[in-house]
Amino acid sequence: MTGLAERVFSTATQETAEQEARIIRLPTAAGQDLAAEPTGRATARVNMLGGFQLLVNGELVQVSLTGQRLLAVVACRPGPAVRSQVAHVLWPDTTSVRAHANLRTAVYRLERSCPGMLEATSSYLRLAPGITVDLDQTRELATRILATAGPLDPELVKDALEANLYDDLLPEWDEDWLCEHQSRYRQLRLSCLETLSQRLAESGHHGAAVHAALAAVHADSLRDSAHETLIRACLTQGNRHEAQTYFASYQRIFRTELGVEPAATIGQLLRTG
């Protein structure tokens, strides 16, 4: 980079940082959060299960791809995100100076197009207070289900039946930084669906139990525990024919895809169930 280009780049970067500093506001003393509108408090929600959505007051808001990536990186982290880490994650193939400049520009443009989504300091980024994230809510619900021994209480059953436990985290995105988050959430989701199916069957919600088990099988057709959960749910419901049908499908999948016989313990269920 020539001396003139460096000076131009430095000046542009400084101007963007100054613009960002003027635009990103902390909550006011009146209690309005960053997503508040002049006429009242706005509600914002970031959805990432099944695909990215930003909803403000229930209305879908268009966000640039860079803005989506920025919000997703911050939303996937349990606490404030370190700016240097966010810059490196989003622009891994550029210099640190350029990555930080890109981040400042992305924050500024997001604030211009979708005001009040982020709180920003010189070191950290986080979603503004009051913004809900479907990933956080579903993870919390899954943890509650997995921690519950025995039948689920009615309120938890209601929450589970209304929750989106059927979509993966940003399944269409192919980003290196996202892979670990996707894998971890997927395992949590599948374990939750299997446990949920068992708990629903114990509570007498047999149809919902089969539905949850089917979701686990459709998510991973080579997962033995998912097939076992589905067959158990059908047997508990009293539908031996359906259980036999699903077992035959399980055998066919494993023989075709893996060239192996399925677990003998699952076939044993049909003989003793």
From TrEMBL:
Residues covered by the Bacterial transcriptional activator domain: 133-270
Keyword flag Repressor: no
This protein's UniProt keywords: Transcription, Transcription regulation
UniProt keyword DNA repair, yes or no: no
Superkingdom field: Bacteria
The protein's name in its UniProt record: Transcriptional regulator
Biological classification of the source: Bacteria, Bacillati, Actinomycetota, Actinomycetes, Pseudonocardiales
SUPFAM superfamilies noted in UniProt: TPR-like
Gene3D superfamilies named among the record's database cross-references: Tetratricopeptide repeat domain, Winged helix-like DNA-binding domain superfamily/Winged helix DNA-binding domain
Organism (species): Kibdelosporangium persicum
